[in-house]
Design goal:
Dna Ligase, domain 1; D-amino Acid Aminotransferase, Chain A, domain 1; four-stranded antiparallel sheet; six-stranded antiparallel sheet
Length: 339
């Protein structure tokens, strides 16, 4: 019989919260879909679950842990004080306190959050990455010699395609300077400008720490985008349902991949996962060109875990029903050494 656990589900909030704040209303809204799905899954497994949403007061987490004494924290907090750069600090706090938690530790989160660092590591190990330049705040543009336009201009440390739009694809130095200025001012973020890779947009989920399970490959398909037009996974392409319908954007399992190529992709993903020191679970975003060359785009520690999103859908295809996926994530969190 499976052991019943005391689990603290940790969320983030966009405004100050209290220790025992009732979030029933929020959990009914689309913005809280992942949190609602995870809570329902944990309850289905029979665990005792409390939740806490953090905005800017880590003292609440300390109080909750002292009062509830959870066996493990199910970590769904990906920002602090509305800043996504601080998700790694929440994890660091749990590590210092010796509290077991699910998902990635602080080191892989730091490596993956900085898109330039992750690409430098993988490039050193001869994994294909787009050519890129980093442009810190205060600089108008970076050296583009050796890079091939068009370039895709993105915030360096944002997630979920935030800051990526059709205007992110620039074709000359003037457009680059204009978009860099926009990202610096709008998102208060450094910039990474990388070569646009024309190819299929693939997503690969992995689960594990030492022994890894690679889930079936998912793909964002651009059905109504003309073949000669760039295919960009913009913010709207991921989150705006009307936009997705208009352009025929569908997330589905990748079709027509040669079995040998599929095996190569999965083995490369395992290598990337280990090189970036990922643990728990993660999703890798990749581009596959017409000649079969695979490019790493970015790694997403603790990707969106809603039951109807890519990661959970791929896990289900691999034979892991949603509650069982959550239990595997819990088991990994309990076994992982964080020292």
């Amino acid at each position: 019989m499976k052991k019943k656990l005391k689990i603290l589900a940790l969320f983030d909030a966009i405004a100050p919260t209290t220790l025992d704040q009732d979030l029933s209303a929020e959990l009914q809204t689309p913005d809280w879909k992942t949190e609602a799905h995870v809570l329902a899954g944990l309850n289905e497994l029979g665990h005792e679950t409390h939740y806490l949403a953090l905005f800017d007061d880590t003292g609440l987490l300390q109080q909750k842990c002292e009062g509830f004494q959870p066996d493990i924290v199910f970590n769904l907090a990906d920002q602090f004080r509305n800043n996504r750069a601080f998700d790694q600090n929440i994890v660091s706090l749990l590590e210092m306190k010796g509290v077991p938690f699910t998902g990635c530790g602080s080191v892989p989160m730091i490596l993956c959050k900085h898109k330039g660092i992750s690409k430098k590591i993988l490039s050193y190990h001869r994994i294909h990455v787009p050519g890129f330049v980093l442009i810190p705040r205060g600089q108008k543009r970076g050296p583009t010699r050796g890079l091939k336009f068009p370039l895709l201009v993105k915030p360096l440390k944002e997630e979920a395609s935030l800051g990526i739009a059709q205007a992110s694809l620039v074709h000359d130095d003037a457009q680059l300077a204009e978009r860099v200025k926009f990202i610096h001012e709008k998102f208060d973020n450094d910039v990474i400008a990388e070569e646009y890779i024309d190819g299929r947009e693939l997503y690969v989920g992995l689960l594990g720490t030492s022994r890894l399970q690679v889930f079936p490959i998912r793909e964002l398909v651009f059905q109504n985008v003309p073949p000669d037009e760039p295919k960009i996974a913009t913010y709207k392409a991921k989150w705006d349902e009307e936009y997705r319908k208009r352009w025929g954007l569908i997330n589905q399992f990748a079709e027509g991949l040669d079995p040998l190529l599929t095996s190569k992709i999965m083995n490369t993903c395992k290598r990337i996962y280990r090189l970036l020191m990922l643990d728990g679970y993660a999703r890798l975003d990749l581009r596959l060109t017409a000649d079969g060359t695979l490019y790493f785009i970015e790694a997403n520690p603790n990707p969106m875990l809603a039951a109807d999103e890519d990661f959970a859908q791929a896990a289900e295809k691999a034979g892991l029903a949603y509650p069982q996926l959550l239990q595997r994530i819990l088991n990994l969190g309990l076994k992982t050494s964080r020292e």
